[in-house]
Amino acid sequence: MLTFWIIGAMLTLLALAFVIPPLLKKNPKATDIDRNSLNVAIYKERLAELEQDNLTAEQFATAKQELEKTLAQDIDDQATPSANRLPNCWVSVLVAVFIPALTIGGYLGLGSPQLITPATATKSHATQDNDKARSEIDEMVKGLAARLEQQPDNLQGWQTLARSYAALGDSAQAIQTYNKILVRFEEQPQILADFAELLLKTNNGQLAGLPNILVKRALSLDPNHQKALYFSGVAAMEKADYKTAIEHWERLLPRLSPQAVDAKQMLQQQIAKARHQLEAQTAQAEKTPPTSPEPAKSAAKIEVHVNLAPTLQHQVKPSDTLFIYAHATKGSPMPLAIVRKSASELPTSATLDDSMAMMPTMKLSNFKEVTVVARISRSGNAAPQPGDLQGQITPITLGKQDKVEITIDQTMP
């Protein structure tokens, strides 16, 4: 904006430079010069006539004096400006003031000064608008989270909260919310697939581990679930299981919307790529002797004995709930095996094994190391809450540590 006004001022000064100087010149007009010359010529002519007349010296002197007086009066009349004519200097001042004023006023009234606003100003306003919108969205999400604490059975609200956290890039909160959903509600294919997609983004684009387990569970509930079929194919490609990838993607292809032209084309390209790699794999396998299969894994189990620290016994009520569970040391905190008891049974023992898995594919035997937790909940909610009493042991190496003893001696912040 400043650059524009500087250029405008320079152009205005340039225009005034052509207009003002002629007005300030003091040269008399050509008509004034001609009339003065004429008066002088008339004076000389009449003086010559007087000299030729037969006048006395006294009469000649008197006539000459009157002639000179007349000449002087005529010249003075020409030198005096007209009463209705402004001096040139005042005209110059008026021009210098009114031309810039009219130019600026006309542009502001008829032009578009907003169009010369610098791009940085526009970006600044856009940034402020984005920050304001983000702040408003954050407040809405916080409000939703607060309402769900009062309405813990609102499944749709929890799904919206998890997706909102994911959309805002808060993966940690989104993962925690999905874990709460899986603990509190019956499994649904869409929730499992959405959770797997989120974990895929936080797992360097890899489906190995928990994301793949979630996808398989979603397909077990709905074999034709589109997102689960797609990610199952991706997981198969990661393991070089090209045949499975082709099968799942070919099941998915006819289920895509007719309007999803780009998605269909991309999927067809991936199927073609998988076929090409399967052919190369088959050709290589024909040259390599078969290997013996690995022995099946034995079922894992952990015997847990739980005690309550004497300093916390006065805080426990018979109506409180005791949860004993194990979860993966790395990855999702979702329980792999869980036992629910009354706090009045303390001290007590429990055995955690694959039969207690919340999901058939999410079980102890699929992990090498786990964390074992014993927690007393006043609300009876499986998800940790502030004020809960807890004790844990980590890490536990499955197959080497089959028995553990836990003392509940901590208060959840």
Q: Which stretches are low in confidence, meaning pLDDT under 50 for 5 or more residues running?
A: 28-34, 78-86
Q: What is the rounded Rg?
A: 50 Å
Find the count of extended strands (DSSP E, 2+ residues). 8
The best one-word shape is: elongated
Strand order of the largest sheet: 3-2-5-6-8
H and E string: HHHHHHHHHHHHEEEEEEEE
Helix content: 55-70%
* Main beta sheet: 5 strands, antiparallel
CATH class of the domain at 301-411: Mainly Beta
Distance between the termini: 55 Å
Task: State the CATH architecture of the domain at 301-411.
Answer: Sandwich
- The proportion of strand residues reads 5-15%
Number of helices: 12
What would you call the structural class? alpha+beta
Mean pLDDT: 76
Query: CATH homologous superfamily name of the domain at 301-411?
Result: Carboxypeptidase-like, regulatory domain
Query: What is the CATH topology assignment of the domain at 301-411?
Result: Immunoglobulin-like
What labels describe this entry?
413 residues; alpha+beta; Immunoglobulin-like; 5-stranded antiparallel sheet; 3-stranded mixed sheet; 12 helices; 8 strands; 55% helix; 14% strand
Question: Mind explaining what this structure looks like?
Answer:
The chain is an alpha+beta fold and 413 residues long. Among the domains are: 2-110, no CATH class; 301-411, Carboxypeptidase-like, regulatory domain (Immunoglobulin-like, Sandwich), CATH 2.60.40.1120. Helix content is 55%, strand content 14%. The protein is built from 12 helices and 8 strands. The strands form 2 sheets. The chain has a 5-stranded antiparallel sheet with strand order 3-2-5-6-8, with no helix packed on it. The protein has a 3-stranded mixed sheet with strand order 4-1-7, with no helix packed on it. β2 (321-328) and β3 (335-342) form a beta hairpin. α6 (155-167) packs antiparallel against α7. It is elongated. Residues 28-34 and 78-86 have low confidence and may be disordered.
